[in-house]
Design brief:
With 227 residues, the protein is an all-alpha fold. The chain is built from 10 helices and 2 strands; from the N terminus they run αααββααααααα. The chain has a two-stranded antiparallel sheet.
């Protein structure tokens, strides 16, 4: 039910805005931007994270991973103009909360299909884009898991912070990837961080809503937090 609400929200958003190729200020880094060293490093980290994530996926987790991967696929396709840039939801904080390491293969598959079907990002930058969006998901899982177990308002604040932190860390990683490639991208990196401030708040609210809903109606969906 909670996932139906997310898809309903994304459907309403999609009817108001076009699906269009991402700009440089987007979370999707395009091909031909990064240096070979950064691309290679991203590929190695993505392969390692995917291997760990696949080992943690059991039969019962497959539907949850598939649904969240589909939600990520849709959310990151819908771009909303904010000033000179176009932003989109990522939901990596929510995915980290519900999937932990399993978020890495879920995000990788969605990004691969986007690159293949819509030319979002690209195959050569698939590893880097996976790391910039999936690594924050795993970090949020471990950073907030203890607080999410707490009763009352503390868990709610942690869920909101999880959504905010996921976008913040993704923005920082995109900025680092750009700056590592060359100082010419410094201004673009700063714009990436500033432009995603509204998205941080929105993602925090969505993650809080989904967490509270699942905690009340389907607490077994949150079992990864308590392991």
């Amino acid at each position: 039910m909670a996932f139906f609400v997310v898809f309903k929200f994304l459907g309403v958003w999609a009817t108001s805005y076009e699906i269009k190729p991402p700009r440089r200020e987007d979370m999707h880094i395009s091909e031909g931007v990064l240096s070979p060293a950064v691309l290679a490093g991203g590929a190695v980290l993505a392969v390692a994270g995917t291997a760990i994530g696949l080992k943690k996926i059991d039969y019962e987790a497959i539907p949850r991973v598939a649904i969240l991967s589909a939600a990520f696929f849709v959310a990151t396709l819908i771009h909303v103009p904010i000033g000179p840039v176009a932003e989109h939801l990522v939901l990596n904080g929510l995915m980290g909360l519900l999937l932990g390491w399993m978020a890495v293969p879920a995000i990788l598959i969605a990004l691969f299909l986007q690159a293949l079907l819509f030319q979002f990002g690209g195959l050569t930058v698939l590893g880097v884009n996976t790391v910039t969006m999936a690594a924050p998901a795993v970090i949020c899982f471990y950073a907030y898991r203890g607080l999410l177990r707490r009763p009352g308002m503390i868990a709610g604040v942690a869920a909101f912070a999880c959504g905010v932190t996921g976008i913040l860390l993704s923005g920082i990683l995109v900025a680092v990837a750009l700056i590592t490639t060359g100082q010419a991208f410094l201004q673009v990196a700063e714009l990436v961080l500033l432009a995603h401030i509204p998205v941080m708040i929105i993602e925090g609210i969505i993650t809080l809503f989904i967490f509270l809903f699942l905690k009340k109606v389907r607490p077994e969906m949150l079992e990864g937090i308590y392991v």
